[in-house]
Amino acid sequence: MEPLIHPKGGQQENDNSMQRAISVHGWGGHPDEGWRPWLGKELEKNGITFISPLMPNTQLPQQGEWVSFLQKTVGRPDTKTYLIGHSLGVIGILRYLETLQKDEEIGGVVFVAGFTDDLGIPELTNFFQKPIDWQKIKTHVDKVVSLQSDNDPYGLAKYNEDFKKHLNAETFLLHDRKHFSGDDGITELPEALHALRDIMI
């Protein structure tokens, strides 16, 4: 994977003080788990606001609750708002983006271990009651990065192709990151940081 960190010399187009990254954890997840605390500290060193909320009802997640919660958390979306989702957080972000108004858009998204069907897991089926409206999502975001692991226990590497096909995502297959969770020993994720910095330029 090519390094995505850009030099900080010279005047940047974006004002970091106005940029914010909102993290959406996965099923059964927690904002203080895994690489999220590290990512938040790294972003805040550069003046970027990091928001990592506890999603509702994480053990029995419901699409309606998650989307409503994200709407309240994001407030008014704009091009200095960036979303980063892990696992179920990815479909949560996609469903949220489907609800945006015609003239609303965000700056970009980073997907970590995302998927586009319920993986045969009953607790996740309610997020997939209708097809993903890729065309509508594309009208609200045009910078998309997807990170997958070559040994994810759920076999998620193939979903990079969905994100590339439908959202023109820049995709990366990383080695030996399993499901990118704290239980997998992933407490830092520099590739996610680099991806965010890249789309914020």
List the helices and strands and how they pair.
Elements: E1 20-24, H1 36-45, E2 49-51, H2 63-74, E3 81-86, H3 88-98, E4 108-112, H4 134-138, E5 144-149, H5 159-167, E6 170-174, H6 190-200
Task: Bin the strand percentage.
Answer: 5-15%
Kindly report the CATH topology: Rossmann fold
Q: What are the segments in which pLDDT stays under 50 over at least 5 consecutive residues?
A: 1-14
Strand order of the largest sheet: 2-1-3-4-5-6
What is the architecture at the second tier of CATH?
Answer: 3-Layer(aba) Sandwich
Span between termini? 18 Å
Give an overview in words.
The structure is a single chain. With 201 residues, this protein is α/β, with parallel strands linked by helices. It has one domain (17-200): Alpha/Beta hydrolase fold, catalytic domain (Rossmann fold, 3-Layer(aba) Sandwich), CATH 3.40.50. The chain is built from 6 helices and 6 strands, in the order E-H-E-H-E-H-E-H-E-H-E-H. The protein has helices spanning 36-45, 63-74, 88-98, 134-138, 159-167, 190-200; strands at 20-24, 49-51, 81-86, 108-112, 144-149, 170-174. A 6-stranded parallel sheet has the order 2-1-3-4-5-6, with helices on both faces. Helix 2 packs across helix 3 (88-98). It is globular. The two termini are 18 Å apart.
